[in-house]
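Sequence in, structure out.
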Amino acid sequence: MANPENFTYERKYTLASTEINTLACRLLQSQPPKTSDRFICYLLSSADEISNLARHAEREAFLEYYGPYELSSTFFVVMDTTYNKPAGVVRIVKNSLAGIPTLNDAPKYIGVTLDKFKAYHKVDNLDTVWDISTVVVLKDYRRIEEIHGLVVEAVKAADGKLRPSAELFKRRWLDGEGIDHRFMFQFSKDIGYDSATDKKLSAKL
């Protein structure tokens, strides 16, 4: 894969175990943990080769690539310091010439144009908008069985205003197989959001 001029390393979405260990050791040595906690969160620039750890983790859950948004991406990576490997990752995308992933997809999936988004949320400058494009917890760390019961109880205890979002969280993040940046699009449909008029038709949060 050819790299953009701004990248001085080869971007990789699939790493061998030796590469994971090498990059993890480099990260932990260059930014030693300040606590004795097993899991440590790091902020990684896409310009840093260590961010390949984030791409590898992301690729284990998603089939799509985010090539057009690489230059405007930043990663939060949770490292397992016991086994020297990533446990989870969040990709944040800021505005660029490629645009913002969620807003680029909005017209196709829910019929919301960029102009409607900016007007509804009173956004004048898209440089003030960050997109949480991917959220990944690697399979070995999900512990669904352990937390599922706690979430079910939390949904039952939620009051009327919060229950729709709590139930959706459970369905998509626990019951579902995957998570993608269209989460809020589906949520807007579930609560009765009318994309034609930009009004909520039913449940109010």
